[in-house]
Specification:
By secondary structure, the protein is an alpha/beta fold. The protein contains 32 helices and 23 strands.
Amino acid sequence: MTTPRATYRLQLRPGFGFREAAAAVPYLAALGVSHLYLSPIFEAAEGSQHGYDCVDPEHVRFALGGEAGLAELVAAVHGAGMAILLDIVPNHLATSGRKNRWWLDVLENGPASAYAHFFDVEWGQGGDDRVVLPILAERYGRSLANGALAVVRDGRGFAIRAGDARLPIAPRALGLVVRRAGETAHHAELAFVGDALAALPTPAYRDAEARRRRHRDKTVLNARLAALSADPVCARAIDDALAAANGDPVELDSILEAQAYRLAHWSVAAAQLSYRRFFDIASLVALRNEDPEVFEATHARTLALVDSGAVDGLRVDHIDGLRDPPAYLVRLRERAPATWIVVEKITSAGERLPESWACDGTTGYDFMEQVGGLLVDPDGERALTRLFEDFTGEAWDPAAGSRRARALVMGDALHSELAWLTELAARACAVTPACRDYTRAEIEAALSAIFAGYPVYRTYGTVSQRREIDRERIAAAAAAARDARPEIDGDLIAFLESALAFELASAEANELAERAQQMSGAIIAKGDEDTLSYRQVRLASRCEVGSELRVFARAPAAVHHALSEGRPRALLATSTHDSKRGEDVRARIAVLSELPGEWAAAVRRWSARADAFWRVAPDRALELLLWQELVGAWPLPLDRARAHARKVAREARRRTSWRRPDEEFEAAVDAWLEAVFGDTDLMADIAKLAVTIAPAGDRNSLAQLLVKLCAPGVPDFYQGCELRDDSLVDPDNRRAVDLAPSSSRQHTLRWVADATPAAVAATADLGTIKLWAIRRTLALRARRPACFDGAYRALEASGPHAHRVFAFTRGAGDDMLVAVATRLSVHADELTATTLPLPDGGWRDLLSDRALRGGACAAGELLRMFPIALLVHV
């Protein structure tokens, strides 16, 4: 197995598949990367730009180049001495198109499907054994009346047409149509096949042998029907029967009601869904990978790639969505014992990845939070808080804001999940005499109040293994619920608290606890990450995935402590495909914390000038966020600014949203931005501040880069971020990156390979200096890995501005390095009075090529050429 040195993440898509990735391998090898980190590679929904909407985990995606293309990429990667880290998606599959054969079989056969247990479906919800399918553009009644629904026959057989979707037809419903055709044509065999299809049994959910017999019989009957359909007389009779059914709304409704699914308007997904989905995306149905058979089926191709040596590492997406993440990782580790495994996991305040988990660490959001807080000046907190409150007219209160945001998504986008948990809690109450008479409305309110105060994304208890830390966190959420909602019965909250902590003996309570653990992460992510972070925007660089919004800045000592405990094979990320702002945008916005007075004055000046551009009442929080992003991503083109503003406004759910877009408001935001961009004096004023903060922002960028390169863990580079990254939230940050041999980044890499430090510094170009630092540091990691394997120790500077230097050592003896970075660098010239105690011996700065001796070192002189230094023993 290749030792992880650094990863480079590629977003594969149609047009940038395996062949294009293979062409980029020489560039990545020259950069010093050890692992090509690939987005999901299995068959996805048609046109997918990311691959997380996988429809078939058994086959490599044809649009990326298929099996042959993957083999070529693997050969190129291995030929360069590199390996592959593959992103896998065990939580869900997409339901769209015709390639998810498992789901299509479920839609055709319901609980009788051989794959019914593959998906997380609540069979029999409300006494109905059908899957709620919210795909209709109009309400069911209107769709039925206007011809949007029909039973059809084509070259692929019989189906239900629902708008643009082609859905399987249940054997019993097909049998009714075929029997009518047989009776009309006086064709005994056709009528017999119809009767036989209609009479196919519905085996018990877990009766595998009965399901196999049913499948065999159905296959025989379908083959006979296909043969009969080739007869002109039978074909005409069948088509006449279909036409009659489609022309009679009552009969058509009876056929649709006989399906294994219930067609519904798309909005129903928010409240009545009968299957677990990924967050609020109804087209992504959850898998039950806690079932060994499902695990084997969904991981067979992935594990074959691991076993063959094609894939060296696995990145597990959305680990918190699984029923039992620790058990899943044990099973995965058993099947891939030597594989490098990292998990996408957001840790909250005071939370760490459990040491017992059979993986090598997280994908790096915890690191991003630490280094992001390090770059913020704590002295700016009061002024920026005051600016936020005065400008928006809202209180700065992340805790209360979080409760409101979570309650909002639970009452709207994720109400289906809350309703499911309410049903489970009602069942638990029903078997407990003391709680039997609580209404569903009361139970739902209590659950909502508890989840609104969860301090972490989820807990990890089981019936057989309760964790004390989980109990404490659930108790904290319950206490917060009592404080926030005193009108809710305290005994009910206490009952739910015990149930969620696996302290009750009933199977119903344990099912509630396990389901709640799977669903709480979606509630918190949608409430905090995707709503609150676009509302409480006093400093946008701290409104990031994985950020602690309540924490304005992080002290160097606390960051040193966190980094010292890092896992050596965990990823260290500064940008990802889910980041809300690119790493260099955040680095520039962080500078505003050092200039709170100038920033507040600029915001008020710009807003006063642009106020006349609003055609509706202004959304001041949105406006404050956009001012920050204009200077952080300067120069930001109007088209990207407009697309970003629309996404931000919908995520914030104030005046518009994804489910209920307000076209008038969104048009007003577009017009406001267009007017801002058209005001040359205003744009010149914005440019002036953007240019002023850019040097300090660049120093921040290089500081977070050096820490990532040298701290315990594996540095991860998101595509394109080896140069300046001005991207905003997806899909902006998933834009195609030019990695062709003729690209400017490849030219720059070739140039820095032969350039002198002075020539690189003279460019004053952030991208060039980033490439220089990455290439040289990764070369050191390859040449002297012991420097990065040893202990992490803080190196404390002294002097009046010692807090502006962040330094640490790795390794010991001759295999020691010293990493030095500048922070809070608006006043970087003041470092002349700051010294750094270098360990004894001779040293060379790999970035400036300067030689130094141990002892007191003037930080200003050390950082004169570059704002970062990487010293190694010579």
